[in-house]
Amino acid sequence: MLPLSGERTDAKGIISEKSESGDVIRGSSTLKRGFAHMLKNGVVMDVTNVEQAQIAEEAGAVSVMVLDKLPSDVRKAGGVARTASIRIIEEIMDSVTIPVMAKCRIGHVNEALVLQDTDVDMIDESEVLTPADELRHIWKWDLTTPVVNGARSLAEALRRIEEGAAMIRTKGEPGTGNVAEAITHIKKVNDELRTIKSIYDSGDNQDLVRMAREFKVSYDIVEQTAKLGRLPVVNFAAGGIATPADAAYLMSLGCDGIFVGSGIFNANDAAERARAIVLATTFWNETDKVKEAQKMIDERQSMLGLDVKTLELRMQDRGGSA
Amino acid sequence: MSAKIGILAIQGDVAENVSSLVASIADLNQDATVHVVKTPEQISAMDGLVIPGGESTTIGQLSLVNGSQKVIKQKVESGMPVLGICAGMILLANNASDRVVGKTEQPLFDFLDIKLERNSFGRQRESFEANVSMDPIGISNYNGVFIRAPAISSASDDVEVLAKLNEKIVAIKKGNIIGTSFHPELTDDLAVHKYFVNLVKESKN
């Protein structure tokens, strides 16, 4: 059974077709959110070419995310980061059996439409790319393809879900190899979920509407989320994950799965590290297995981490106030 | 005697199957318990097993790594009921081929002699909800949720076809083994899970 809190049954992204064998519906919340549910307890890996996508699939990734540059290289290159080349996305879709995702810029409706028409399985409206609209994210109910968004707090997560996000991930701080921000974000979301749940359990509706006003979302979605005691969509960890132990720790904090960006293909032991991170995500609560995974990698091969305090570019702040 | 029903928790939508099974057992007023299982030891204590939706390549590889695949094979071959959903149904097959990529070299459990095609209806945008009927097991008017779903084009004579959609086989049964292309755990209709609970209870008695 699937929580459908906040769903819009009149969304433009829902397509009804009549056929001889009966009516068919595409793009419903059950299908879009359900897709994300199939990724649970798995690892989604950032890739930039076919070779990396195949390494990811062989390592047991549940999906690959296609980018033009890995987040850490976006950081180094500077300038404007846009969606990846359609040709490369198509090549990857033709060479792996697992789902293929791609990123579009925050608020860039037509990049998302192009990705939908390319038939990617999920679109990431991502702060790793340069935002096209700082004030407005995409109204994702208009799309048939599911969209994942980043969030640093329950307020951001619920705002994105109201816009039609089918999945949420922490923002963390992409391209740093530093997991601290992802940990901060998931803990903040968890704390806020506990707060609204306790308000809901106490029956204090006035306090719940106060929370809705603070979060800048509707009362209904706060009430439904409080009742559930968790986000009504799948919630993954992302941003700065570099080692198997990083992945295991985030799973232990209640994340439904893991996105790894630069951590794998900017390390010098990519294939081994990819397998190790999958192993640690699956068996996160068995310390001997996480140790085994940790032994598969060499810390001297890990990507060089960055201290978040000294960063010139904080990707996590992008689109955060909207 | 109380029956233990496990959900293979390597990867995929485990919690959704837990809630569907718990609700089914309560509705049927059956004496059965639901367990999230991952290790060979946990699996060997079960009387029935659900292999959930997820990515078949991931579940297949990791169940090989921790030795659970071997136990599942032994248990199912000796009669333990198993319900394979979507990725779970792919794993029940003896071969799999992707619609675009072609034949895959992924590890499978090899219970069913069928011709199975992964992503048979297309990519996520083509995922759909449609009405299916599984007349041989008395379930009709069922809302099938198909997500990047596999389908079977042909099956050996010992495999019973439970449902078809546009000439593609989307649900099958071979004795204690059931497979569905669609996701009963994503709907509120408990018919498939209830059928499976009863099957486990019968095989236990």
List the helices and strands and how they pair.
The complex is a heterodimer of chains A (322) and B (205).
Chain A: E1 15-19, E2 22-26, H1 29-37, E3 43-47, H2 50-59, E4 63-66, H3 71-77, H4 86-93, E5 100-105, H5 109-118, E6 122-126, E7 147-151, H6 154-162, E8 167-170, H7 180-202, H8 205-215, H9 219-228, E9 234-236, H10 244-252, E10 258-260, H11 262-265, H12 270-282, H13 287-296
Parallel strand pairs in A: 3-4, 3-10, 4-5, 5-6, 6-7, 7-8, 8-9
Antiparallel strand pairs in A: 1-2
Helix pairs in contact in A: 2-12, 7-9, 8-9, 10-12, 12-13
Chain B: E1 3-8, H1 14-28, E2 32-37, H2 40-44, E3 48-51, H3 56-65, H4 68-77, E4 82-85, H5 87-92, E5 97-98, E6 102-103, E7 114-118, E8 128-134, E9 139-146, E10 151-155, E11 160-165, E12 168-174, E13 177-180, H6 191-204
Parallel strand pairs in B: 1-2, 1-3, 3-4, 4-13, 5-7
Antiparallel strand pairs in B: 5-6, 7-10, 8-9, 11-12, 12-13
Which shape of chain B, going by the Cα principal axes?
globular
> Percent helix among the residues of chain A?
40-55%
Biggest sheet character of chain A? 8 strands, parallel
- Work out the largest interface and the residue count of each chain: A-B, 45 and 49 residues
Overall tally of domains of chain B: 1
Q: What name does CATH use for the topology of chain B?
A: Rossmann fold
Secondary structure: number of strands of chain A = 10
Mean pLDDT across all amino acids of chain A: 95
Assign the structural class of chain B, choosing from mainly alpha, mainly beta, alpha/beta, alpha+beta, or little secondary structure. alpha/beta
